[in-house]
Here is the input.
Amino acid sequence: MAGSDASADARGESAPGRSPHTEAKAAVAKGAYGALAVLFLINVVNYTDRQILSILMEPIRQDLGLNDTQLGLLSGLAFALFYAVMGIPIARAADRFSRRNIIALALFAWSGLTALCGFAQSFGQLMLARIGVAVGEAGSAPPSHSILADLFPHGRRSTALAVLSAGAPLGVLFGLAIGGIVNELFNWRVAFIVAGAPGLVLMVVLLLFVREPVREGTSAAPADPPAEGGRSAASTLSVLARLWAIPSFRALSYAAALQAFTAYGVTQWSPTFFIRTFGVGTAQLGLSLGLMGGLAAAIGTIVFGNLADRLGRRDPRWFAWLPAITVALCVPFNAAVFFAPSFPLALVALVIPSLLSNAFAAPTYATIQSIVPPQMRSTASAFLLLIMAVIGMGLGPQAIGLLSDAFKAAAGADSLRWAMTALLVVQAAAAWRFLAAARNLGTDLEKAGVR
Here is the structure.
């Protein structure tokens, strides 16, 4: 048994039955921090290419003659459906073959298609290009989560995944800044082309400097398809059924989806709201939102991810309690943003929800990676992201667009403000669901061999 534990430590893995206190002290795998750095940069590019549309929606609307419902479809449902649907088969492939190579192919695809968005001449062409971006980006997060779960032991995973997740708000920062500045210097088409270029460089860096790690619980070569229990791959449906049977997985999925519904919707429509409400230019807005919102969100993601690891070693329910607290605190401050009398005051109020709105991500992702079998980690991540994508990314922006058009007769120019405010009810429900998710966490972690 001692030899087995030593072998596990050499690979950066956890021995069965090891306590969270002991696991937190286990050495991470060789090359873990370098891999984390590259995957972090890829996540930054991922969200830059995803989020750049939000700062460009108003000039696109004027150029192509679109309405808010069409903009909501471009930024929400059309993107989310393909992101969600393709995430599962790509993740199943990542659970069987080289996760690094899958990320590289995905990065090449979405970066090229982001640049292609700049050549769209109609709503249909732009939607097709955005769908392609969605399919490519579906191959990034699940294998990245799985790689980091094999490189960092339980007790350190939330911090590692917090660093990875911090790439999302920083990507939003760069998407807003690049989109806003390049749009004013040139136009929205050039902004898409500029945003697509860095991903192609990062693909080469990934292939040169990141190795596929050995999966926890197996000594198989990285390219060999690992299997459930033995060496035969389980069917996708049986894997999804097994995941859904874990109470904490279900509870965290519900809570994360409700938070994503509000967060994606508000984030996607905030630039348009500020342009219409305060008449801010895209360059000023991109820098202001990026620096105030993006940096605050990145800091909050890392700080609360690390805090979740520290508190979770004492009581695993903190992996759900902490997200519940941070999400609940977002509600009143988001309302303050929507009803601020001036743009500077709105930015000040925005700091708090920016710090807290993404704080749920790392504890949730880390817990999911810890409660599921190692050979299902990519699929578990993809399944969670599917639920978050359809309900959050898909329906959140679309709901705001539909509500904004519906409220125009009664609210006039304030229709978008009231549409965004309506989503805060869903955010309050997300906080309640995170509280409920804490109930079975300890038991599910014990069943997974984490005690």
